[in-house]
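Late entry, coenzyme A complex.
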Amino acid sequence: MALLLRELGYPQGTDQQTVHWVISHPEIEIFVAGDAQDRPVGMVSFSHRPQLRLRGRVATVDELVVSEPWRRRGVGRALLAQVVERGRVLSVKQLQLISPLASTPETRQFYQACGFSEMDSGIFRHAETETRR
Ligand SMILES: CC(C)(COP(=O)(O)OP(=O)(O)OC[C@H]1O[C@@H](n2cnc3c(N)ncnc32)[C@H](O)[C@@H]1OP(=O)(O)O)[C@@H](O)C(=O)NCCC(=O)NCCS
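Prediction complete; structure with ligand written out below:
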């Protein structure tokens, strides 16, 4: 997981404590794609929670990455298909993702190919939290 997160552009990856926190959280799920030897080649994490105005559940794709040598072989599409299917089971009313990387033409094309369309979302981040990495 740490190696895949590095490929996503987070050189420090993650730490054991956060991995335990995430995998024991009842409203966060992770799918990992493996090769024939069960080595991880891609992962997607997503979280879901009830939202008042939707009168139901909203889900967010939090992290998605496919290892470089495995790109353009359908792994990312398959991982997102798992999330969509899980969303159906959970009766998710809205599935969304927020990603600075989604602004590159390639990732935009990828998300569009997987059924997502770009919203005019106006996302703001509090300046103080920028430094809490
Ligand atoms: C974005 C990413 C997850 C895509 O995963 P992937 O396994 O390579 O994607 P797939 O092979 O399933 O592609 C599915 C479709 O998306 C589109 N697509 C994928 N990568 C593309 C690219 N680089 N350029 C144009 N279209 C692309 C194509 O339509 C493709 O179908 P096709 O290969 O039959 O033409 C992967 O490139 C990645 O990990 N990138 C770095 C991290 C990142 O950007 N993460 C997402 C933001 S958090």
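The helical segments are 2-7, 16-23, 75-89, 105-113, 127-130. Will revisit in the morning.
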